[in-house]
Amino acid sequence: MREFSRLNPLPLVEVPPEARHRVVLLNDLAPGELFIHEIYHSIQGESTFAGRPCVFVRTAVCDSRCRWCDTPHAFNQGRRWPRSAVVEKALSFGCPLVEITGGEPLLQPDVRPLMSELCDAGCTVLLETSGAHDVSVVDTRVHIIMDLKCPDSGESHRNRWANLEALKPTDEIKFVIASRNDWDWTEKTIRHHHLDTRFTCLVSCVFGAVQPVELANWLLAARLPRVRMQLQMHKYIWDPTARGV
């Protein structure tokens, strides 16, 4: 059942009963308003866009609780911004690549028009999303980078498999690997759904839990030549705990 906020006529995204307490900060957002954790200019650390300067618009609030989450401060820290001010701030850096991340961006109805407005302004727009929510509502100009949560995240039961039919061939699917068990699940999932022939598939380590050399060896042994290993570049450039980078 869809929930409605008191002020926003757009329906909030469906959230299971056990997670509804995690999104209460969004309940009274007004139309045209977003709950933003931070907006900053940095180097894109992941995806096929890694290494490029990028503006990050990080929304606050997430309905998932991945065991290895590296941005728990975005669960409830932020402030309300008019959507127009978010667009203005993102464009002020003069950088044509903008990523909408979180938190979970698709929890907020005004994220959808925000992405469209940034596309209208000539930006290449990336959306990083957990994969638990419907991506078919996203402007087709947006480049989606969607997680499929592995078992050790504690959130794999939330994977919305119907999203695989909504993604475009230019979109990317990301697997975050915390153990050999996660890798085995990832390999099986990629093969079962033929994901590596349909999308760009990215695999990365949970920082400090799996060593890059381990993941590299697993990938080589699996003989999945189209799958791309990635590292979180920003955690090697700056302190892994640094914010705003």
- The H-level CATH homologous superfamily, spelled out, is Aldolase class I
| CATH architectural designation | Alpha-Beta Barrel
| Number of spatially distinct domains | 1
If you average the pLDDT, what whole number results? 92
Intertermini distance = 37 Å
Structural class: alpha/beta
List the helices and strands and how they pair.
Layout: E1 33-43, E2 53-59, E3 79-82, H1 83-91, E4 97-101, H2 111-120, E5 124-129, E6 143-147, H3 163-166, E7 172-177, H4 180-193, H5 195-198, E8 200-205, H6 212-222, E9 228-229, H7 233-237
Parallel strand pairs: 2-4, 4-5, 5-6, 6-7, 7-8, 8-9
Antiparallel strand pairs: 1-2, 1-3
Describe this structure in words.
- The chain contains seven helices and nine strands.
- It has 245 residues and is an alpha/beta fold.
- The chain has a single domain, classed as Aldolase class I (TIM Barrel), CATH 3.20.20.
- It has a nine-stranded mixed β-sheet with strand order 3-1-2-4-5-6-7-8-9.
- The longest helix has 14 residues, at 180-193.
- The radius of gyration is 17 Å and the shape is globular.
- The protein starts with 32 loop residues before the first strand and ends in an 8-residue tail after the last helix.
Short descriptors:
245 residues, alpha/beta, 7 helices, single chain, disordered N terminus, TIM Barrel, 9-stranded mixed sheet
